[in-house]
Every structure is written in C-alpha cells, then in structure tokens.
Amino acid sequence: MSRRWLHEHHTDRYVKDARAQGYRSRAAFKLKELVDKDQLLKPGMRVVDLGAAPGGWSQVAAELVGPTGQVIATDILPMDPIAGVHFVQGDFTEPGVFDQILALVGPAGTDVVISDMAPNISGVRAADQARSLGLAELAAEFAFEVLKPGGSLLFKIFQGGDLGDMRQTLQQAFTKVSHRKPAASRSRSSEFYVLAKGFKGRN
User: Is the distance from CB of 28 to CB of 92 less than 8 angstroms?
Assistant: First the structure.
C-alpha cells in the first residue's frame, strides 16, 4: 500500500462522508449518484447486489427500496449483516449458490441487478481490462436469468476493454444502454459503469 494511496484515502471527502454517514465504503456515493441520475431504485423494488462485500452498495439499495422492497447480496467474501439485506456467501456462478439466490428472488424475478465487482489489480492494463470484462459478462449472464421484463442491470467495467459482442448482446436484450462515470469515482481510475434499462429478454 503506497504512501500516496494512504494520503489520498485519508483526505478523500467521500471516505470522510462515508464514515460520517455510516456507510461501509466510499463506493456508496457512486451508487447514490447513479441512482439519482437515472431513478434506478425505488421503494418496493427487489434488487440483487453481486460482489457486495463490504456492503456499501447494499446499504444504499436497502435504504432506497425500503421495508416493502428486498435486497439480496452475494459475495465470495463474508459480509457483516445489514438490516433489510439477505446475504448469500459464495460464488454466484456455482449452481448451489445460484439456487439459493434464485429461491430468495422467487418466480416473479428481480427489478434490478447491480454489480460493483472488480478484479484484483495486477498492474497489467490489458490483463486487468480482460478480467474486468469477464466479470461484467458474468453479471450480465446472471441478470438474464433473474430480471423481470423491464428490469435494469448496472455493472462496472474498466475503460479500454472491448465490449464487442457484449455491447451488441446488451443492446438486443435492453431498450437502452448507457455509460456513466460518477463524480465519486476517482479521476485517475479507469472504471466506468454500464447501465442497461428496459429488459426485453435474451434472444
């Protein structure tokens, strides 16, 4: 962990705001901005948060969907409990874990799938971009299985990664696909977010 990173972390206003407001990570403010701009999460919605630990996005989602909604979070890492959030630990691509999530989602499906997943950074840009794209593809495949008609998918990806066939797949499966770079995302970070709205089903 570099001295520069530590300095940036401790002087970062979003880190300070997260501590002051009780959020588990500064990433909570990325989701807040994305939600405010696109009205993505509303009371009563059912949401699945992929790669949820430590839980910053799940906290925001639970606040916004309220007691009439439902948040289902999953990660291979453990996560401390959050009020209003059902947590499933494990790899969501494994059948047993997927079945647990599916049982919580129920036959009606989910309104929104969100994913702030990112690979462990190697420092090799091309490799990191490829791994980021791989995680995005897993999030999309999961969303295709659980989203109800009209649902939305939000996921992170690194700039420079070639969306290629995935972009075409998303454009066929959703009515609108947009890119977002929230202010809470560090300026030197290559991350951005893809928002796909209006799920039509996969071909």
Answer: no
Q: With a cut of 60, say whether residue 4 has pLDDT above it.
A: no
Asked if residue 152 has pLDDT above 90, the reply is yes
Helix (H) or strand (E) holding 86: strand 85-89
Would you say the C-alpha torsion 172, 170, 179, 196 has a positive or negative sign?
positive
Q: What is the mean pLDDT of residues 74-95?
A: 97
Determine how many CB atoms are found less than 10 A away from the CB of residue 41. Answer: 26
Residues with catalytic annotation?
156
Model pTM score: 0.89
Helix (H) / strand (E) element for 121: namely none
Give the amino acid at 128.
Answer: D
Of 39, 78, 71, the residue nearest 57 (C-alpha): 71
Using CB atoms within 10 A of its CB, is residue 107 exposed (0-12), middle (13-18) or buried (19+)? exposed
In this structure, which amino acid lies at residue 127?
Answer: A
